[in-house]
Amino acid sequence: MAERLVVIGGDATGMSAASQARRRRGPDDLEIIAFERGHHTSYSACGIPYWIGGEVDGADALVARTAAEHRERGIDLRLGTEAVGIDLDRRRVRTREVAGGAESWTGFDQLVIATGAVPTRPRIPGIDADGVHGVQTLDDGEAVLRTLERGGARRAVVVGGGYIGVEMAEAMIRRGLDVTLVDRGEQPMSTLDPDMGRLVREAMEGMGIEVVSGAEVRKVLTGDDGRVRAVATEDAEYPADVVVLGLGVQPNTGLARDAGLALGEHGGLLTDLAMRVRGAEGVWAGGDCVEVLNLVSGTHQHIALGTHANKHGRVIGINIGGGYATFPGVVGTAVSKVCDVEIARTGLKESQARAAGLRFVTAVIESSSRAGYYPGAKTMTVKMLAELRTGRLLGLQIVGREGAAKRVDIGAVALTAGMTVDQMTALDLGYAPPFSPVWDPVLVAARKAADKVEAELRGH
Amino acid sequence: MAERLVVIGGDATGMSAASQARRRRGPDDLEIIAFERGHHTSYSACGIPYWIGGEVDGADALVARTAAEHRERGIDLRLGTEAVGIDLDRRRVRTREVAGGAESWTGFDQLVIATGAVPTRPRIPGIDADGVHGVQTLDDGEAVLRTLERGGARRAVVVGGGYIGVEMAEAMIRRGLDVTLVDRGEQPMSTLDPDMGRLVREAMEGMGIEVVSGAEVRKVLTGDDGRVRAVATEDAEYPADVVVLGLGVQPNTGLARDAGLALGEHGGLLTDLAMRVRGAEGVWAGGDCVEVLNLVSGTHQHIALGTHANKHGRVIGINIGGGYATFPGVVGTAVSKVCDVEIARTGLKESQARAAGLRFVTAVIESSSRAGYYPGAKTMTVKMLAELRTGRLLGLQIVGREGAAKRVDIGAVALTAGMTVDQMTALDLGYAPPFSPVWDPVLVAARKAADKVEAELRGH
């Protein structure tokens, strides 16, 4: 008799796992049932800001593989079906049909928990007002567009200055709105050090975005029609016809916790390298509902990113399928942009390095995306952290224009390999005038960092 | 009394070495004399095609640091002065003034040989005709421009399908000429495998460039005015008002050989990791006149690239300056473009891997520069070579549009670190829809390569 795999969650991790397992094991060997609460599968939540901004034409474009395509591949996909309980002892999952509420049990041999994350929503007055939106699901995206399209929206307030926040600020600008970004941090993009975040802030202000830092939203104010009209911090009110929440997400692990599975300090499930949930035979988890090991700090983090979710799903599916794969961890790479300003980071920022017990030097340089004389060359700022004594690369941050963001991949690979900044000065990176100065900006930063490591060793 | 450093060659390696040494040792401690045959220092030969193509405004833009700037930094720079002999026993260099011919001896304690390379010029009839040009020096660039600007030039023949060849083809197209590229190889860009070179060929043909492969130029035909009028291969004649030679370069090491220094099998000087010439105390060399160790094949190569020359100069200057630096070798990275087609390679191509005694699998995939739904996403083809059994990355080739070339840096770092393609599938590369699909094209290739390594292990 075939083994049965049950997947909870029909997005990146769940459906990648199902697809990979199916590729390796036919329906006679492995039955696959996937439950998804919503009505879409395998979609790119990361693309929602660009859809709202009008650069992507409709939600369908964001769907990588439809329900029908999954079913054609022999996956019994049940949309509109929410998992409401996991019984590990009897190896079964309780589900409820969202429309109707009918509940039933489904047994499993293997279980993949891919329940994702839920957006952080501050518990403040007015948060549920008409015109206040998260941007995590396709339904959220549709709701934002409805608010924008009913007309009259002129002013947007974006709450939160992280990736979603800056990307939604761009989307609102593209929609022709006046944009205010309200952020708790010292500078926007708190995944960067403040000196690099300041560059993002200045660039955003140059685009006409009002950036309010160090401010917490206390209240959402509504008009008589129930629609949002402003956002209030302790000190000020910011008029708003639409409010977008970009306050990050938290692992959606209530179901797992209720089933008795242990959660990490960030509320995510903890897995081993094969993505098996710790202490639960035949139970796997990945994506936004797990914590991942940061290979540089040696600590676990919660990082909600589609690229990790896809990798997790692939690893789970290969392993269930009888192959062998592991997910060793992350180095904390993330790239984003706001209009033409590219933002990238990998490894640890200063406060993270200190929290990990590391001591380090920092190097900040300005260089050019192309040979200085080549048309379109743009300045970028590169910051590098290197460990004292060993000179090991600890982190890389880049803010610039075209050609800035993906240069962070050089640092991501170097971090994975445990390279020193001195070793990095000799890296054989691609050089031609349209693509790089003769010393790539990352090499210029490595040179400066290596010099500072050496100077520290000498105790100058 | 101060030590004396003599530098032969005032371009990237020579002047980088001089500058680095000067930064670390003042004039009282180190006298620096640099001889340069020409009239320019520290210029970007790689930029010449873009200057000729009209994208760079004048030769001055290509000069990174002028003679005056070097002199201000305490370097006794003597332009128009050619080194004609090296007397290692008596530690002195014989020089001749290009204008006038006066010769003299200059003693040295430390000597840097940075004599660069000379372009390959086939010994065929008509090769010295008016209108036939190399493109290695700023003087060459001026000569090409004079030929173009005297009017009437409609047809260009570019001889050689390597980097210079394809870049000059682009320049000639930008100048409005009809372009024929005549190349000996099976496909243009013979630093790529033929299947990838074919993509370059097809793209060039799509731009209206006539690409003639497998053809050797036998003769340059001239008119009564002594100007070039056509180029003849064994089989055909190609009308030409201007001919550009892009046949590569050879190490300019006659001086070194005459001084009794040993040369490698490619005619370049051989150095140790600190860039000291083997068997010659206090003699250093770098740039286009040396051979470099390819870290993947374990063999020496001659690679004329400004980025290596600059690194060599820095290493030499640091060491002469009393610091410590090494140049461990290269992995064979090179990037280029022809109009909007980007071309990149690192590591070994198939024939190189075989020649090195390696056995391998290959994986070729097509993917997208951005999320498929994001505006401006372009297809790129990625080819990966991975060693049998170990799965170690051996080479990476990419042909595509915007965003293709610099992705090769991921492979360059991974090769340096000795990563396997399986390890690469877990690399934490930057992902956001404007910059990458959720699986970066390099990761897609790594997945396929890893699958093929696994399949080979299983013996099918």
UniProtKB/TrEMBL annotation, chains A, B:
Listed InterPro entries: FAD-bd_OxRdtase, FAD/NAD-bd_sf, FAD/NAD-binding_dom, FAD/NAD-linked_Rdtase_dimer_sf, Pyr_nucl-diS_OxRdtase_dimer
Record's keyword annotation contains Chloroplast: no
Domain Pyridine nucleotide-disulphide oxidoreductase dimerisation: 336-438
Cofactor: FAD
Similarity comment text for this entry: Belongs to the class-III pyridine nucleotide-disulfide oxidoreductase family.
PANTHER family in UniProt: NAD(P)H SULFUR OXIDOREDUCTASE (COA-DEPENDENT), PYRIDINE NUCLEOTIDE-DISULFIDE OXIDOREDUCTASE DOMAIN-CONTAINING
Protein name listed in UniProt: FAD-dependent oxidoreductase
Upper taxonomic lineage: Bacteria, Bacillati, Actinomycetota, Actinomycetes, Kitasatosporales
